[in-house]
Amino acid sequence: VYYVGLDIRLAGQDRGTFRQRSLNSLAVDTAADGSAHLRTRILWTEQRAPGETQTVLDLDPEVGDERAMLALLDGGFELTLAADGTSTGMRAVDQAAWRDTVTLQPQAARLLNAEQQLGGLQPLALPSQLAIGQRITRRAQTRDFGELTSQMQVQSLTPAEVVVSVELTGTDVQGRGRQVLQRADGMPIEARMQLTLAPRDDLPATEQRMYLARMDLDPLQRLESETLLETYPAMIQAHLDAPPFSAMSSNADDYPPSPPEERVPGLLDMAALKQTEGSLKFAVNRDHRDGRPLIRIAGRVGTGASPNNDPDALALTAATPRAVHFFDARGKRLANLSAQPVLDPWVLVGDFHADEKDIAFPFRLPLNTRGSQVDAIRRIRLDVDVDTHLGTEVETLVPGALSRRNPNAQVQWTSPTRVTVQQALPWRARTEGYWTTAVPLDAQGREMPAAMVDVHGAHALADAHPGDPAQSPLHWERIRQPERLEIATAAPIAALRLRHQRWQRQPRQWTFRYLAPDAVEADTEDGAN
């Protein structure tokens, strides 16, 4: 499942921006001859124009032209990609729905078709041997833009992935951007493009910005932190270039007492996890502006408060939905209703709630789902994976020694009063491990006053080419930067007390109980959200 964002504005004008966000599924079948058949489907989409917001859930599956559009989107688009990288071009899977949409909403059909051709949701045939600086050319035939030519240059490599800059040209279209692809099959992991489209028929010239990312990169979090990336690197570097980190400080207030042990945010112990699971519920909302009744879910993480005794902090956790099951009033599974999990991870904070119109909703029903199908639901079960806290192990580390508990935690003793603890973020393939924090100790084994700052590697990576879509680092590149804990003291550090918080990813079944309309009203009157 991919997130796809598209911003469109009239070329050379400042009259507002049309924004579209969507969640798309992508399936690829590879044949023995090396060709690939690709199918992409829109699971959810939202359009925003100045003063107006619409989602695909505003469409009514019982109304003619809207029914045709929903059938078209639910069926999706497909193409065949030859082994040499050439393709047949995108076509709608449901050709009857395509013909109806072209007849009833011709401009919408043209825009949708153009988006599928330029959206980047297709694999690229890559050479088996790659080297940094290598140039790759690929061509594809499209209905609206003729032959699209992609000129790519390899920017960086890992054994499994390749980062390329991209120059795109075609009839009435040009663009540049950056992509990270799987080397094995050329599937996109993340991509960013800026496009310029010349006027075509009755469509004006436009400038478009496109961003897509696999959902396991957590693109929603990346979008929320986008503005922070502009200021964080310089801010954190200025902090480290000043006392007490660059030199010792004469101000005793710069060295506060070492903080008490704090739980890593997002890790719940089993007691708090069971509290969370006991709070899960759902209701079916009816609003005349929606195309059908919508599911709304709610709950509370633990007690709602942070386990670190911070009155201003809320408890949070993250879960990865793997499967969704629906049951009727008799407890029988609804065989005619399925759903696609989409969030990876699904981040829950304090008293949480979400409905199907929210982008941060954990699963998606088929777009042509009828209201009667939703009304039959009386229980929802999500099979999820949750990272849980199993306890803390303490280790004393002297200069020159390596951690026996967490080899991932690298300690750099840069001076008698400066230490850096560096560790990579746990990657999604790992299912258990440790996350380490540290406090300095003096020669008597006592905790020392110290200045400490956590440096978030993904945010701290400086952008040498700000605003350049082909050179500015992607989120995939940023999250590979390690996290750092910088420690500075006024006296020599004899050792570190390492606090290794053990975590484990556990499979759980989360059951959401049904709230009837009268129960929802009672909850609201009692102050529940």
Give a structural overview:
The protein has 529 residues and is an alpha+beta fold. The chain folds into three domains: 2-217, Lipovitellin-phosvitin complex, beta-sheet shell regions (Roll); 223-259 and 389-503, no CATH class; 270-388 and 506-525, no CATH class. It is built from ten helices and 26 strands. The strands form four sheets. Strands 1, 2, 3, 4, 5, 6, 7, 8, 9, 10, 11 and 12 form a twelve-stranded antiparallel beta sheet that branches. Strands 13, 14, 15, 17, 18, 20, 23 and 26 form an eight-stranded mixed beta sheet that branches. A hairpin with a 3-residue loop joins strand 7 and strand 8 (146-157). The model is unreliable at 525-529 (pLDDT under 50).
Write the layout of secondary structure elements.
Elements: E1 2-10, E2 18-30, E3 36-49, E4 52-55, H1 64-75, E5 77-81, E6 91-92, H2 95-104, H3 106-118, E7 135-142, E8 146-157, E9 161-170, E10 173-182, E11 188-197, E12 206-214, H4 219-224, H5 228-240, H6 270-278, E13 281-285, E14 294-300, E15 316-327, E16 340-341, E17 346-349, E18 351-355, E19 363-364, H7 371-375, E20 379-397, E21 410-415, E22 418-423, E23 432-441, E24 451-455, H8 457-460, H9 475-478, E25 483-488, E26 495-514, H10 517-525
Parallel strand pairs: 13-26
Antiparallel strand pairs: 1-2, 1-12, 2-3, 3-4, 3-5, 5-6, 7-8, 8-9, 9-10, 10-11, 11-12, 13-14, 14-18, 15-17, 15-20, 16-19, 20-26, 21-22, 22-25, 23-26, 24-25
